[in-house]
Amino acid sequence: MLFKDYADLMFKLESVSKRYDKTKLIAEVFKNLDDEDVKILPLALQGNFFPRYITLDIGVSSKLVLKAISKTYNSSVEKIEKLWKEKGDLGLVAQSLSKKEKQMSLFSKSLTLKEVFNALQKFPEITGEKSVDKKLTIIIGFLSRAKDLEVKYLVRLLIGDLRAGIGEGILRDSLILSFIIKEWEHRETDELLIPKDLSEKVQLAFDILNDESEIALILKYHPEDFEKFIKIKIFRPIKLMLAQRVKNVQESFSTVGKPAMFEYKYDGFRVQIHKNNDEIKLFTRKLEDVTKQFPDVLPYLKKNIKAKKIILDSEFIGYDPETKKALPFQKISQRIKRKYDIIKLSELLPVKPKIFDIILLEDKELLNTHFKERRKLLEENVIVEENKIELSNALLTDNLEEAQQFYNKSLEEGNEGLMAKNLEGIYKPGSRVGYMVKIKPILDTLDLVILGGEYGEGKRSNWISSFIVGVRSGDEFLTIGKVGSGLKEKEEEGLTFKQLTEMLKPLIIEEKGKEVKVKPKIVVEVAMEEIQKSESYSSGFALRFPRIIKLRDDKSIDETTTLEEIKTIYKLQRHRNE
Ligand code: ATP
Q1: Torsion on CA atoms 293, 299, 302, 306, rounded to nearest 10
Q2: Which domain range does residue 363 map to?
Q3: Does residue 492 share a domain with residue 408?
């Protein structure tokens, strides 16, 4: 595929707004690609360079791209920065500069999508002293051969701000149309008409493999029996099952049925444990490999798990080394990020896994095995050793009062509440299907993504001091409020304005006066008094007295609060006030 065809596709995708039109445009293109491009396009459409399960970064900052543009088109960095501020889109700026520099690209060979991706996918391997210069030379090489729209989308790809980026849902549907429901072109309708069970099956493939390139190729060659090729792989993280939220214990029974398994809801860190013989890897819910962070836990996982090959789902919780009492997540959050002195830190802030589910046992996938049976297998395969490796505290009951007491006991012991699990529930990766629900006393914290902000006044003029936060709705983000409070001035007190500003700066994609727009990446937990209807924000809702509680760097932007959840909370709070 020529890079020009990719740029044209992105341009067209940007000019249509209906999901149906976007899906059709992409499906059309997939039909005529060779295998290598079938693997690259799913990434390129989303503005990614690697499949989801690989957490590598090409390490290209907007500063480096600015420099490359400046060198390619003989324009000063200051001038380009100024134009960027005016137009708000570095891709457009580069495109217009390239038009003035006509003579250079007349005789060059056309860029292909493959060569751009093959080169950029090798960027993480470029390290050492001259690495920045080497990357710069490659980018300049590409820019000087790119023309017009190619320049715009190349720059946007490089700075990680594709804008017209396609989400997983549209990608999934376009692969289905292109490879499975081939006759869609002849239909005279403007609905996709994809059978629900088919899109669910393909979605499951995404949630298990987390590799859109591999899935695209499987669908191309095995449209009829693709499911045979979707297998859980050891050491390849899967998306974890998520919980719906209910108001109280009574409502949990009506969602998961009676009797139900109630478990303590621990305030820790979700970890999936993969073990094959003596090798162990640990992954977060964002699919990041965090094995190195927990040298203290690994020996017990090796020693106390009977099966040779197993995947387990757990919550790692911190405890006080003296009193052995559970510590809140905030206290142990350093364990995830720390790059040095990991062993010393593990003595100060020990953690233990509370294992609550089993996903794979030897070569048997347990996704379709009922929870009751999974819990049994879990108990058979883990040898509990107090404070080293434990199972979640569980109570099987159909009695409301008993469950209520268990809930109170869990809270008294410092946990967040209870989980209630459907005994016949299957394990659905990546979904909030209601086989497990959470019961917590406070309904009112949300996980929101930062979409923009505003620099402060006076002593805060160097920091972004208020943040525009948003919720997810399908593939896009809608704003729901502006929050400034909750952040601290000093690091000892918690997350500071300075820290958050530094995290956001590399993500800035537009700047006007004091206002900035940022690429959605950072997730924060926000508490508030109430959700209100509002015209001021694109979600149609606003938050009363919002304040930032903490950074949720364990969450990806796909896992933030959705507009649907906001509507549910809005309804629940009205019931509460009645
Ligand atoms: P919250 O912010 O309420 O923790 P969340 O959005 O992070 O929720 P949910 O999936 O909605 O995540 O809530 C369930 C989370 O609770 C799980 O991701 C897991 O990390 C944690 N958890 C603690 N104890 C258990 C348990 N016994 N069974 C399942 N999950 C548990």
Answers
A1: -130
A2: 246-439
A3: no
